[in-house]
Each structure stands twice: as structure tokens, then as C-alpha cells.
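Duplicate of #3305? Posting structure anyway:
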């Protein structure tokens, strides 16, 4: 598709085939003055160990349990889970009011919620961790997926980093929620990837990746087995997608080389993020892959594993993108073009962290 419009100057919409929705891009709005909310900007200055932090080794959590003296990753059941197992069920009785049945639907929501600490030190984040320690994190993700996937139809691995993203604890950690149902976002992605596969006989994200490799407009960093890019349809200002170059449907199908390369490219991307506004860059990150549980034995050739980083910062370490008004009531909107965001990230160092030389950091 060719377009004579100057995409850096004029508003336009872009289609997201994963979600079957359009994104409004308004690049001219980056020139407007900002007099709105400004977040407090502060560089991390945390203690390595805080006896009052319930995620630290040897500390008592709110439920009375004492964390072990862990040296690498540590996983435990969330003390305040959004999902848990229970015996009650919803009875499907015959109704004389079919309209009411369509308007007031309810299903049991059961599952398991885990917390995973990346490292015993509270003053570390993934970009300041050693590659070997990031590899440990990835392998623990795979181990948790393998543990939960036979029982649950969906396993969501995600990390919220930074107070601005609602992270309640600064210790390096993530969460894994497993559920007996397929969440909305995954349901949409599953349907749209399957539709594309049936229509074209090809995997949507592999085809998309091949075209991005040729264009080289939105690629941020790549290595032998992975690519990081700003998606053509990105919503958040510096949103990125991590995609393996090989067709991989689920996280437990990654090879040892792909695991090692994933650790390396995550570190490079996250150093770039921190360097962008000279801050510990906040984001929500998560993996999407083929559904599990009862779907494990079903064909999933249409699925391609990917991870998304969704950071809120827009202009500086203290000005964030607000998803309000039009975004909540009509459709997603962004100011910065995906191409400009990729260009800015690409030009940043991915080895020299603004605070430390992370390749030689010795903890």
C-alpha cells in the first residue's frame, strides 16, 4: 500500500489486525504546549535489602509466612489473589426469560495467581541485572507455564514496573495469573490470527515480521533469533513488540539459543528505555501465546508468540500519556508516530546505562 500523505504531519488511522480495530494517529499534537499533570520524576535510590519489604528474603509476609533466603528467583502464591480455586458452580437452569439470559450472563472464574521475584536484591531491575540472571527469570517463566498450562485455559505472565503503573512494591518481580477462561484480549487475537491463517494460509505475525524486516522503519533492535519493533498500530507512545524470528506458538517451545537471545535483547531494549528519559522507565509487559488447558491438543499453527511492552511516558520522565476521553469513549489515539518512536529508541545506547555500565556491573 502506498500513501502520498505526510504521516509525520497529518492525522490518519492505522489498522491493528490482531485486535481488528483502528488507531487514530495525530502527529501534529506533539507540538502543543503541556500544562497538565506532571508526575514526580525520581531516580531509583533503593536499599538492597529492606526488612519491611514483604518480597525480600527472610522477611515475613502479611499472611505470616516467612520468605526463604532465596538467591535467584522465588515464586509464591499471591497473598491477595484475583483468582483462586473453589467448589461452588453456577447452575444452568431453564429460564422463561431469554432476553434476561442474554443481558445478565455469569460464569465461575477460577484460577491461580503467583508472584515471582526476579532477584533477592531490591535495588536491581531487569536492565541492570546480569544476562545469566535474566535467563533464570525466563526459564522460571517457562517452568511456571508448564506447571499451570495443563490445568488452566490461559496463563498470563506480566510485569508492572513503576508506581505510575500501579506497582505496589519496588522489588523486581512479576505476576503470573492462570484462569479457567480465555480473557477478552486473547480471544480477539485468537480469532483474528485464525481468520488470517484460514484466508491466506500464513501466520499473521510471521508475515508481518517479514515485511518489517524488509522495511526497517520500525525495528528498534534485533539479534539472531529475536526482533524488537514498534508496531505499525502501536497505541502507547513507546510501545514495543518482541517477536521470535522463528514460528513459535508457545513459550515452552523456545530453544536454549532463543532463551539466551531473549535475555540479551530484553536487556538491550530496557537499557534503551531507561536512557530515553534518564529514569527507571515504567511499563506493563506481558507475553501472549496460544491458549492452554483444553486447547493444548487443538491446532494452534495460527498463533505466534510475542511480548508487548506498554510504557506510559510521552514527553519526559514526568509527563505520561493519558487514556481518557476520546480513547475511552471512541477508539485508541496516539500523537507520536510509530516510525518516530522507533527512530528515537534505535538511536539510544543499548549497552551503556545512564546510571551504570550494566555490562560490567557486579552487584
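Output from current build:
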Amino acid at each position: 500500500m502506498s500513501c502520498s500523505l505526510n504521516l509525520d504531519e497529518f492525522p490518519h488511522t492505522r489498522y491493528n489486525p490482531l485486535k481488528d480495530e483502528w488507531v487514530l494517529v495525530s502527529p501534529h499534537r506533539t507540538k502543543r504546549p503541556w500544562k497538565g499533570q506532571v508526575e514526580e520524576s525520581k531516580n531509583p535510590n533503593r536499599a538492597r535489602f529492606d526488612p519491611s519489604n514483604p518480597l525480600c528474603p527472610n522477611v515475613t509476609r502479611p499472611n505470616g509466612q516467612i520468605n526463604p533466603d532465596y538467591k535467584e528467583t522465588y515464586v509464591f502464591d499471591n497473598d491477595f489473589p484475583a483468582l483462586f480455586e473453589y467448589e461452588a458452580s453456577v447452575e444452568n437452569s431453564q429460564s422463561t426469560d431469554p432476553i434476561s439470559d442474554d443481558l445478565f450472563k455469569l460464569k465461575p472464574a477460577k484460577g491461580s495467581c503467583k508472584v515471582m521475584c526476579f532477584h533477592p536484591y531490591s535495588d536491581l531491575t531487569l536492565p541492570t541485572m546480569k544476562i545469566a540472571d535474566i535467563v533464570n527469570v525466563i526459564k522460571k517463566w517457562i517452568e511456571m507455564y508448564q506447571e499451570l498450562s495443563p490445568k488452566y485455559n490461559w496463563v498470563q505472565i506480566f510485569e508492572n514496573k513503576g508506581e505510575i503503573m500501579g506497582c505496589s512494591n519496588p522489588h523486581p518481580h512479576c505476576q503470573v495469573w492462570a484462569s479457567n477462561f480465555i480473557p477478552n484480549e486473547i480471544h480477539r487475537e485468537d480469532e483474528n490470527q485464525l481468520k488470517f491463517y484460514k484466508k491466506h494460509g500464513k501466520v499473521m505475525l510471521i508475515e508481518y515480521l517479514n515485511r518489517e524486516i524488509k522495511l526497517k522503519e520500525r525495528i528498534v533492535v534485533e539479534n539472531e533469533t529475536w526482533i524488537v519493533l514498534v508496531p505499525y498500530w502501536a497505541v502507547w507512545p513507546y510501545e514495543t513488540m518482541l517477536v521470535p524470528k522463528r514460528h513459535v506458538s508457545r513459550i515452552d517451545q523456545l530453544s536454549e539459543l532463543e532463551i539466551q537471545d531473549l535475555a540479551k535483547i530484553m536487556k538491550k531494549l530496557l537499557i534503551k528505555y531507561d536512557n530515553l528519559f534518564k529514569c527507571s522507565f515504567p511499563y506493563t509487559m506481558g507475553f501472549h501465546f496460544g491458549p492452554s488447558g483444553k486447547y493444548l491438543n487443538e491446532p494452534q499453527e495460527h498463533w505466534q508468540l510475542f511480548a508487548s511492552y506498554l510504557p506510559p511516558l510521552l514527553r519526559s520522565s514526568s509527563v505520561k500519556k493519558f487514556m481518557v476521553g476520546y480513547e475511552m469513549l471512541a477508539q485508541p489515539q496516539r500523537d507520536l508516530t510509530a516510525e518516530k518512536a522507533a527512530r528515537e529508541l534505535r538511536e539510544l545506547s543499548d549497552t551503556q546505562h545512564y546510571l551504570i555500565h550494566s555490562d560490567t556491573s557486579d552487584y
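Confirmed duplicate; merging threads. The two ends are 50 Å apart (CA to CA). The longest strand covers residues 154-161.
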